[in-house]
Structures are given as structure tokens and as C-alpha cells.
Amino acid sequence: MSGGGKRIRPTLLLLACEAYGGNLQEAMPAAAAVEMFHNFTLLHDDIMDNAVVRRGKPSVFAKWGENVAILSGDAMMIYAYKLLSLVPESKLARIMDIFTPMALQVCEGQQYDMDFETCAKVSVVEYMRMIELKTSVLLAGSAMIGAVLGGANDEECRKVYNYALELGLAFQLQDDLLDSYGTEEELGKKIGGDILEGKKTYLMLQAMSRAVEEDREILRKTHLDESLSDDEKIARVKEVYDRYDIQHTVEQQISLRFDKALSLLDTLELPSERKEHLRVFAQNLM
Question: Looking at per-residue confidence, does 2 or 34 come out higher?
Fold first, then answer.
């Protein structure tokens, strides 16, 4: 937790609460809970992905071992519920009804992500559903909890949820893009990790759908070629991406999702100045 991270989920929760005139001090335990839950998922994700770096430092499992990372993650999930129990009692049941299904969906999304590693074929639609569950629902649930704590009605809470859901999809696609086309300074981890793992990201799936068979073979097998260095593997796959203008395709999809998020924000029954921080948050996130 001391590593910081972006803390986008608790920030969004507090901004949604503030937009509807809620008490931010009352919302702080819920904000801490969603950040604690998010960090729990990172501890376990790093074990499953065999990731040795997180936020520019050794991951918990790399530094202290797998058992410590599993138990620490378990404790963080339990502690997240402890924090949630501190919200105003009148809103606790409603918030639990959001948080618990959200937590289950995140786990479901992670399972799909792992399943895709051994699937011969994954569609773009299936991939978008996976990132919705794994990434977007936590952002959307955080925003919705904030709106509930702010006193928003059910219809407004649903609009806030959908705004954050689209934003989360754009955010994950941006993360996919940066993994291949970003820098280590931007991500705090080595670039090209998805390519080296042979992950079926949005970039990979779009390239597979467009490529001739010769290029598909490169996409399928490059990460397994032991005669190539990591840098050579990354460069070879990116050559295929560039051949089919995949970077531009992903940027278009990111822009589409981002614009949809902002259009949903415009439908909120709030004065424009109350929505401004949510708009700025979205722009900063992207």
C-alpha cells in the first residue's frame, strides 16, 4: 500500500459522493475499502502472472514468497469488508449489494483472463467482456458507491455506474496499448510483457483478425521462440502490429469509449459545475 499507485478508484468514489453533496468523511471508509480490495487483487494477480515487479518495485510474492502474498491478499480482502462496515448504517445494505457482486465479477474476470491463455481462439467481444469484469466493474462499482453515499437516486446511480464502466474499458485498452507502445517510466514496469507472455490482448486479437496466415504464425509463436531475445520478440510482434495499423485501431476504440463516458456524464441531473471534477478525472485518467 505504501507504494501508492494511482488510487483512481477511491478518488472516483469520493468525487461521485461530492458531486451529489455527500459527506466526504463518511465516505472515506468506503474509499479505503475499494483501494484495499484493489490491492488485494494485485497481490494475487502477480502470483498468477508470475510478475516480479509492481509499481517499480519487487512484487510482494517476489520479495516475500508466494505464501505470504496469498495470505496478505486474503487479509486485505477481509479488511476491505471491515472498512465497509464503517459506512453510515442507513446505507450499508445498499453498498454491500453493490460491493459483493462487484468483487465476485472481478474474480470471474480474472478467471476468464487465465482461461484465454489456453483457448485456441478468443473473439474481440469475449475479450471486451473479460476486461469489463476484471477492470471496469471495480471502477464502476466504486463510482456507484460514492453516488449512493452522496444521496443520489437509483437512476442517477446507474448513470454514474455506466459512465465509469465505459471509462474503465477505455482505461484498460489504454493500458494494453501502453504495454506495447509506452515507456517503462509511464508504466512502472517493463514494456512488452503482454507480448512476451503471448497474452491475447485487444492488440493481439485485432492483429490476428486482420493478418495473413504467415503473420498469424508470427503472432502465435514468437513468444515461444527461445532463439530470440526478449527485445527481438517484442520488435517482431510490433512489426506485425504496425503492418496492420493496430495502434491506430486501438486508439480509435479508446476514443470511442472515452467519448461515450463523457456523453453519459452529460446526462446526470446535476449542475454542470458539480460534474466538472468527474470530467477532469476522466481526462486525467486517459
Answer: 34
Whether the per-residue pLDDT at 265 is higher than 70: the answer is yes
* CA 132, 133, 138, 140 torsion-angle sign: positive
Label residue 170 exposed, middle or buried (CB < 10 Å: 0-12, 13-18, 19+).
buried
- Rounded to 10 degrees, the C-alpha dihedral 39/61/199/127 comes to -30
d(CA 269, CA 274): 10
In which element (H, E) is residue 53 found? strand 53-54
Contact assessment for residue 4 and residue 55, using Cβ atoms and an 8 Å cutoff: yes
- Of 147, 139, 136, the C-alpha closest to 27 is 147
Q: How far does Cα 75 stand from its chain's mean position?
A: 22
Q: How far apart are CA 78 and CA 61, in angstroms?
A: 19
pLDDT band at 2 (very low <50, low <70, confident <90, very high): confident
d(CA 281, CA 188): 21
Q: What is the pLDDT of residues 179-192, one digit of tens each?
A: 999 887 766 667 89
Beta bridge partners of 57: 54
State the DSSP code for 52: -
pLDDT in tens, 22-57: 999 999 999 999 999 999 999 999 999 888 888 878
Alpha carbon distance 175, 178 (integer Å): 5
Q: Where are the alpha helices (DSSP H) in 151-201?
A: 154-181, 184-187, 193-197
Structure confidence at residue 104 as a pLDDT band (50, 70, 90): very high
Instruction: Name residue, grid cell 472498512.
Output: 83
